[in-house]
Amino acid sequence: MLFYFIIRFPRSEAAKLVPTVSSTKVFTMRSRTNSGVRLDYYQRLVYRTILCYQDPVTGLLPASPTNQHAWIRDNVYSIMSVWGLAMAYKKNADMDEDRAKTYELEQSCVKLMRGLLMSMMRQKEKLEKFKTTQSPLDAIHAKYSSETAQMTASGLQIVFSLDEVAYIQNLVFYIESAYCVPDYGMWERGDKSNHGLPELNATSIGVAKAALEAMNELDLFGARGGPASVIHVLADEAQKCMAVLQSMLPRESNSKEVDSGLLSVIGFPAFAVDDPDLIKLTRKTIVSKLRGQYGFKRFLRDGYKTAKEDPTRLYYEPWELRMFDNIECEWPLFFCYMIIDACFRGDKEAVLEYSDALEEILIKTEDNLLLVPELYAVPAQKVNEEYRHPGSQIRQPLGRSPLMWAQSLFILGKLLQEEFLAPGELDPLNRRLCAEKKPDVVVQVVILAEDKEIQEKLKHFDISVQTIAEVAPIEVQPARVLSHLYAYLGRSKKLSLSGRKSRDVGILCTSKLYSLQDRIFAFTPQLMDQQRFYIASDYELMIDNFKNELNFLKSSWQNVLGRPLVVFTFRQIHLEDGKVPMSIITTIKKLKGGYTVGTRVTLGNLQDFLSTSCITNLSFLGSVEDGIPEKLHPSVQEYLEEHMQKSLSLRPGKLPPVPKQKLDASRTQKKPSHGRKMSLRGTIKRTRSIYRGGEFMESFKKSESVSDETMAWTEDRRNTPPTTNVSSAIHTPRSPSPEGPTKIPNWAPLATKHRTTSDAQYENTEVDELVAMLRETDLLEEQGDILHYLVVYHGLEYCTGVNENNIPVTVKHLLKGLYDKACQQKLWGLVRHSAGMLGKRVEDLAKAVTDLLVRQKQVTVGMPPNHEKTITGPVPEVELRQIIHQAYGDDESTAMLTQELIVYLAMFIRTEPQLFHEMLRLRVGLIIQVMATELARTLKCSGDEASDHLLNLSPFEMKNLLYHIMSGKEFAVSTSSRRGHSVSHHSVVSTKSTKVSKGHIDTLFCRDAEQRDVEKQQGQWLRRRRLDGALNRVPRGFYPRVWSILERCQGIKINGKVLPNTVTQEMTSGELKFALRVESVLNTIPQPEYRQLVVEALMVLTLVVEHNISPYLGEILEVENLVVTANRLFLRDQEKVGGDATLCCIKVSQEKDSSEYEGLECGGAANVCQHFYDSAPSGSYGTMTYIVRAVAETLNCLPRDGQIDCNIS
Fold first, then answer.
1. Among 161, 248, 435, 444, which has the minimal tally of Cβ within 10 Å of its Cβ?
2. CA nearest 574: which of 676, 678, 681, 649?
3. Which residues form the GH15-like domain (predicted)?
4. pLDDT of residue 144 exceeding 90
5. For the chain, what percentages of helix, strand and coil (3-state, to nearest 5) are there?
6. Closest CA to 565 of 436, 469, 646, 476
7. Positive/negative CA dihedral, 1004, 1009, 1010, 1011
8. Do 13 and 47 form a contact (C-beta atoms < 8 A)?
9. How many CB atoms lie within 10 A of CB 563?
10. Which residue has the higher pLDDT, 978 or 806?
């Protein structure tokens, strides 16, 4: 202990103990430079405020002298100053003693970091479990430790063994999911009401993203390491975090519209944001909303240690939160962040500004030590005055003094200001440069032919390509092979760690070359893997996705040595009637030109790009734990030998031939009657749940008494117990996928089926007869109906009695053959249904849903209004598919279409996020209804035909139609018949878009302002409102404006639901939680166009508030009354001028001899005239004009005399 204190004795005091020089003994002394004296002061400050609390056994720092819990966050930040001081001594050493201090400080860092590592390694079981469950209950209390990478890069040896390397590699897998797993955030509080509700936090996601990038390709043994000690991070995982982070900023979470903790994300130490404008916006938002005289508030309505907080409980009641307005505690900690950030940016004025502000609030001890207190609070006796005059009262310091990690950042800031350290020394990995402008990325593209035949076909168009065989010795394989190989990364028998769980590899991973011993591999993108999902069979969609991926690479290929390399394989299945489609030829020729979709590309052979591509070593596949890393792991070797020789091509399957004796036997039996064939035909169509044509709106009005048999499945399933009353029926659940062993999914979708009339007629039909019918017909649609019946009543594993190579042929085998044929012949309706029957799934479905959710978009599936199921948080893939199948029941076609649309929506939100502005909930079922309605309108066909056309659209056309629905662009549909098929082919073609849809999606008012000179088309505004309502789109700034309305009334009533003004006590106007609360009330309105009129009425009410016409609007505002009154005023004016409404609503009203316009011959939703829906928002006969008049007539609070400014243009 004595040695411990002698080493830490202050240098200034030690000088006093030096003996006087005498003639008998001479003590030589070297004078200290001024820099040495200053460093000694900071050393004394570090020891007195930080290191004196370090545990001598574990090396960890407690939260305070009275609280022995060690928080990861506090420890990492607190040790930074020790690390910085060690580098400062190393750089400015005056004498050998200074070098000794350098080593001592470095070892203190190592001891603490290793203490953290050992603490986490003791929780390895939780780490392993979390990779599967992703449950907060299995979290290890430490989401990240990116500072390990920075300290290792600076030369410190923190990791000592390969076992520790394996653990840290699994820790990488742990934090990969940070973008989709709710946690408790930087302050360990979760939702700001402190009820223990986790939520997605931008601070957690940002630091996780920074950690992933910092750890990538980092050798944990430093200069002494080798391939086995290198950490591997899949670039796509960091990119997911980046995308979510960008979509959230400057918001922190659902309950916190902004948080000062984001300063650590946009600046030191994470430097996690690449967009300079977003960094500036976030910093500006934090400063404008949270800065005070004594520091920054953590977030708005933060009650921690305020005078109004009840210290006897940890949580707050919702109504309490508003009490904390303007009296939130202010934390000097964030002045320290701003000083360091300004030093990194070279902003001397900001450094001076925040340094002066910090100096005024530091606490000075008797021995001249400067301490940073935890926070400053308003004294209880001054709270009322602070309410009246925010920022006027003198605050007092509370909490710990010093706050250890604030003290550490203060010392770091001082070392930077006095130039003992350069910014680059605190950031040896150069993360601060991530926001710097970088040169354009050139994407290398290689086109390969599947075989010689395709190679020759391309030569006719003057396109020379190599075949897959000709690129040897480079081996080309699909992305699923790379995914399987990465599953071995991080495996450790000693620690019982299984390695990587995710099977997803994105375009950033497949755009590299990989070396394994003496072999080089190239991998095709995941989007071309036909075995994953049927959408890969559509070459048009593949080309479209291929272009999007090229554009994605341009913006996302960062901090990687070499250029991205994309390998495109052209297969037999992409041919159209044996010919190369012109769209593929056009795409290849554009690639030859060197520029496509705004991206620079270079087209060439694979061997030409070896020297310019990024090559990653798959050294982790060696038998490291067996002591022979140069030899491949036995299971890897077996996998390579088994799979690498397989061709990438996928030949369409065929139905097995029926043996002659079986066929002869079937001929002697009674042949199926024509009536039976006709009754069986159309079985698939009768399972569909899409409302058609005129039923679309009627479904909302008569939702409780829907008689359509296609919707009866839900009640049957809820009220009827599973039964096997059909003789010989074997209800076997379908397999979850066509590959691999049969597994019973949780939802068991075929356990109890609703029987259609034709199904009942065939319950006693012999299977042999059905198989004979299957062979007699050449129409795949008829084969599909027969197989649908067999699956429903006999199950997928039922043996048909036919043998192929002495192997019994099951219904599943026949259905697979049908699926492959339908893919080849592009019969997409049949493809979707058979894929659903087989249990085919989108591998990326859970990821697609998560991509939407983490960008603050909720998702609902199922047909409105009674069968919708809402997905509000990330869920496992099996559970997600269960939710979708429960929502649609027997309707396999729409269930598969829902999966497909979710994937497209996720693509759009990644590439064109502006399409989703002011949308909080994506109602996929309602979008499907609107798509069918739009097709019926465009093709001028019946509802049944529109539903059939929708499900038979190719994946590319489906995506194209969805895009037009989302963007509001006008479109036309061209029709062409295919030879030998009863199904027509439809193409969605953009027409000349109106100004409504150009640029970004704007508010209702701006749309109308831009539309003034455009010729009005009948049905245009009805369609516009119906689309916006179906998409839940609202004007900009809508939710904060609704908040302002609630401040002046007791509540807002919509469709019987009341939104009380008490929510303003709990939530701020900018909170996402508040927006979701408003959205949930609006979504009780089933009719989309009526919903939009209600939104317009709310916007008019906001004008009353913004112009401060009345301080109080009344008790409960019934918004629907405004719409009803506006409609009545509209009809009255229509009667006066002889408008279009005289042909419907007014005519019926006159016939009834009533003063009220009750009849709706036009079919308008919610008893509102359809011509009112089809009116432009502004103008003398616009909807907004009538709603303003309705407000003036309805609200009693408005002045009756004088003029009121009600300009709404």
1. 161
2. 649
3. 36-148, 149-925
4. no
5. 50, 10, 40
6. 476
7. positive
8. no
9. 17
10. 806
DSSP code at position 984: E
Which residue from 237, 236, 234, 239 is spatially nearest to 274, judged by alpha carbons?
A: 239
Whether omega for the bond prior to residue 390 falls within 30 degrees of 0, making it cis, is no
- Count of CB atoms within 10 A of residue 287's CB? 14
pLDDT tens, residue by residue, 483-512: 889 988 988 888 888 888 877 788 899 999
Please say whether the beta carbons of 174 and 137 come within 8 A: no
Give the residue carrying structure tokens 């201090």: 101
Q: Which helix (H) or strand (E) holds 1083?
A: none
Give me 790's structure tokens. 């067999």
Structure tokens at 1060: 């009380």
Burial of residue 634 (CB within 10 Å: 0-12, 13-18, 19+) is: exposed
Helix, strand, or coil (residue 1075):
helix
Region 1140-1164: what's the mean pLDDT?
59
DSSP per position, 966-982: HHT--EEEEEEEPTT-S
Nearest residue to 958 via CA among 843, 829, 816: 829
Number of H helices and E strands in the chain, helices first, is 48, 25
Angle at 362 between CA 359 and CA 365, to 5 degrees: 125
Q: What is the SS3 assignment for 188-227? A: CCCCCCCCCCCECCHHHHHHHHHHHHHHCCCECCHHHCCH
The DSSP letter of residue 652 is P
Looking at the chain, how many residues does it have? 1209
As a whole-number percent, the residues of the chain with pLDDT over 90 amount to: 24
Q: Amino acid letter at 2?
A: L
CB burial string 817-847: b at 16+ within 10 A, e below? bbbbbbbbbbbbbbbbbbbbbbbbbbbbbbb
Q: What sign for the dihedral angle of Cα 190, 499, 487, 518? A: positive
Q: Are strands 565-570 and 442-449 parallel, antiparallel or unpaired?
A: parallel
Could you tell me the two tokens for 617? Answer: 């070593």
| Residue 987 DSSP code | E
Query: For residue 321, what is the DSSP state?
Result: G
Residue 84: per-residue pLDDT: 94
Tell which residue, 1137, 1132, 1086, has the closest CA to residue 923.
Answer: 1086
H-only helix segments in 889-923: 892-911
Residue 347 has pLDDT above 50, yes or no: yes
Please give the mean pLDDT across all residues of the chain: 78
Pick from 99-113, 528-542, 907-921, 1083-1097: least confident: 528-542
Which whole-number Å values give the CA distances from 743 to 408, 740, 796, 797, 1059, in the listed order?
55, 9, 12, 12, 46
The residue behind tokens 């993203």 is 209
Strands 984-990 and 971-977, sheet pairing: antiparallel
Token reading at 338? 């701003």
Cα three-residue angle 713-716-722, rounded to 5 degrees: 115
Per-residue model confidence (pLDDT) at position 281: 95
CB 228 within 8 A of CB 164: no
State the number of CA atoms in the 13 A half-sphere of 690 facing the CB. Answer: 32
User: What burial class does residue 765 get, using C-beta atoms within 10 Å of its C-beta: 0-12 exposed, 13-18 middle, 19+ buried?
Assistant: middle
pLDDT tens readout for residues 984-1005: 556 655 554 433 333 333 333 3
CA distance 1134 to 1154: 16
CB atoms near residue 1013 (< 10 Å): 6
